[in-house]
Amino acid sequence: MGDIESASAKIAIQDCAGNAETEMENSALNDIENQYNGLVNHIEGMLEGVKSTSSSEHCIFRVPIKVRKINAAAYTPRIVSIGPFHHGSERLQSMEAQKLCYFKKLIRQGNVRLKDYVRLVKEQEQRIHRCYAETYSNKLPLSGDDFAETYSNKLPLSGDDFLTMILVDAGFIIELLLRSKFYKLRDENDYLFNDWIFNDLHHDLKLLENQLPFFILYALFNLTFALDKFPRLLELALHFFHNVNKQNRLPNFNVCHFTDLIRTLYLPTSKRPPRTREQFKFLHTATELHEAGVKFKVGSSKCLLDIKFSKGVLEIPCFKIQDKTIPSIRNLMALELCLYPYDSYIIDYIFFMDYLINTPKDVDLLVQNGILVNWLGDSGEAANFFNSLCTEITVSSKNFYFSSLCEDLNAYYKDPWHMWKATLKRDYFSTPWRIASTTAAIILLVLTFIQTSCYCVLY
User: Could you give the CA distance from residue 56 to residue 285 in angstroms, rounded to a whole number?
Assistant: First the structure.
């Protein structure tokens, strides 16, 4: 009996020990689980607070830092800030009073209550906000330090301050376009139309970071001039940027903002051919192609992208290189990086020209044929213009707009007959004197042959 009780006691003790051990294991597991739960809850909280960095409505971007650092002045307004990205800059404060004056004149001539303007902008507030990419949202790598150095994650303004800025900037732009078109609307001492100031305004209104959504300009313009007193807003914008409208485009297309308008004016008016998916890697320089027999001819087309190659002749529309070309092209390329990565026509054009131009000798060749007009003066500067534009920008070798054209040029270059024919023409028939001397040498050679033949027959 005692043995049974002793055995029962041992079993009870073992059970208690086992239960205690199990409880300890469960407690340890619970502690680990609680740690996991804490981490899970922390990450879930982070994910819930995340807002998408991209939106289909984003159309106004900050220029990628690695691109901006190459030539910051090309992306920075000189005298006027438009939109939130450069608002409040001390350098640009002198124009704020002038913007208010222009807005005041617009209200008076439109006979529209200020409350109506405010109501319209307030109703569109969220849509306007969505047009601005508040965070860095493109393909280039960016360190946290670089990001903090230049950009913040949020727009600098919100609420009433944001709406006030949009309204004043929009009113200023509309009044500026009107005065640019109609001289009688200008004040007697309107200094904004002094040549150097007006040129700076032109520069500033082309910048990607210095834009308002076109739809809000359009809405405010139509509210002000509901009775068709003036031409449509897009007509006024085309007049303001008339020096870019080489193709005489009619105002029958949609744009996101002025930078997008400038890009549209460079694109072909007719239906663009589909992009090929051929792998493209390389194109010879203009000098190398010329030595292989390719002839260069200035194209008659007003569209820069209308480049053709047929029967050994490369036809390229005329392109003028001048100081104001640099910021304009750079901002168009930045726009395509952010908004049109798969339809980068301007980037592809610049890369094509960069392939052709490596040295001042390439520039001289294109200038001689009327393809380039170099207002920079020095051929080396012109070559550097194209070479530097492509720094920190990549082009897709499988989506290159000119890939078929480049393959045709490379195939022509590889044909030895073309090289031989070009060498013969260059070395023996390039000038009247060389033609004469070559002809004389051929005649002398023929006569010598005839004389030798006759001598052999006689003797």
Answer: 39
